Amino acid sequence: DLTASYVGAAVPAEYQNWFSNGILSRPDLQNVVIQHFDQITAENIMKSSYLQPTQGNFSFEDADNLVNWALDNGVTVHAHALVWHSQMPDWMINFSGNWEDMMEAHITTVAQHYAGKVVSWDVVNEAFNDNNDNGYASYRDTDANSGGHGSPWYRNLGKDFIPKAFTMARAADASAELYYNDYNIEDDGAKLNSVLRLADELLADDVPINGIGFQMHVNYDWPSAEAIGTSFAKVAAKGLKVKITELDIKMNPNGDRDNFTAAMAQQQKERYQEIVAAYFANVPANQRGGISVWGVSDADSWIPNFTGHNDWPLLFDEQLQQKPAIEGFANALQ
Ligand code: G3I
Question: Whole-model pTM above 0.95?
């Protein structure tokens, strides 16, 4: 039972029957979430392409069904994501009006709608590129790995889209914890440096940010637990909360491990344990935003589509049975 300490999971959810195998039609998945987790994140349907598919037309029904299910079952919601360059509706990508007004309309309408229902938001997701620039990653502009359109937010508003977004989110929701969320910042490298510099700038300007979300899409052998712990500690040292938002562990990142063997299951158990232990060792109790895995069952993981290989990254197998991984995770909980 992982609910000992604020543990969450991203869940697939129905959306206009585009993808209808979400949690609301799966009592077995609901039971696992209620028993083992105390928070959920909508894997997709609270992103801008789903909530505002055409300008001024907000489509909340499906996400409301998910949020209301959570509230009815004593499960909190970490909302994801107000401003991201992926999964934007086409009208937004191609928008030619006032971008600050358009961003404010989206953030305000959505965050007001969920105020009092969600406990936290990923306000801005993945603003930095992976390429290095004197020890820092550059702001994402035209890089290919964002669907080829780069970040329209950065291109139209410059780096100030970030403080503006946090200020707008706080104005719309007075109490939700507001996070900046990114991946590949857990290796104590250039991208983390960019996030730390952003944090310093936001804190210096009294921008309402509460924490940093570490997505933690890691491999069984990368990055080291030491680098992960150091990365957590550097954020915690700024007084910000640290939340693991999307943890999963690729066991076959290179496609050279065709089957999930008992040895790999043991390796994954130890890997989950060392990551959760690094979190508790490096993040003071009052700065822990929690730990969420990106999916419950290996059958629902985004990773095989992403890598093109079989993989077994999560705590439950394709039949929703517990894997040794969950024991490793639980062993490190405090
Ligand atoms: O399945 C529908 C299909 O029925 C419909 O016709 C089609 C119309 O475009 O959309 C399909 O939706 C897919 C969606 O997942 C729901 O399954 C999209 O094609 C697919 O691109 C989308 O992938 C999601 C991905 O974000 C998009 O970048 C993954 O499920 C989701 O796990 C992943 O999550 C992201 C986080 O939000 C941010 N951090 C990284 C993480 C992994 O990429």
Answer: yes
